[in-house]
């Protein structure tokens, strides 16, 4: 009996990985469709056909079109949120590292395209806009609040009693004019070095220099 268990147990793991891989591929396909055709011009039927899955699979795996769009937004954000971990054992370094990942994500072609899309559709689909905000900006602000809370009080150059409020202000600063210029198609997506320098400048407005 133990031999049977040993023989069958490993088989479940690849299936789980396969399901995750198929879902990821589906969301990648959906993102391309949304960016190319907008929210109104994208259909579950076309996404399913492009992903080479049954229409029912889209509904059972993700949900309806609004669920699909929100899942695309959340998947994009996972690149930075799931990477949050002590990078150098120093709270300031951790905040800086997350800021760089966040700026590069929010100013990427994909994120800018989705932002333009949801901005144009917000009046017609207010619930979609609210869900986009909850799974995008609000999610990142919550991470920033946690990283700010980990800093010793003496590192702040501004009053920092409410980390949530400060995180909102920091998020606004991190986006700022670079995000506006990207929305207007004026600037290209920033390089790692450019994003790092920009984040350092922004944090310099909020934090005192350390002893390191």
From TrEMBL:
GO molecular function: DNA-binding transcription factor activity; transcription cis-regulatory region binding
DNA-binding region residue numbers: 43-62
Region (Disordered): 1-21
A family per Pfam: TetR_N
Keywords on record: DNA-binding
Domain HTH tetR-type, first and last residues per copy: 20-80
Name of the featured protein: TetR/AcrR family transcriptional regulator
Biological source species: Jiangella ureilytica
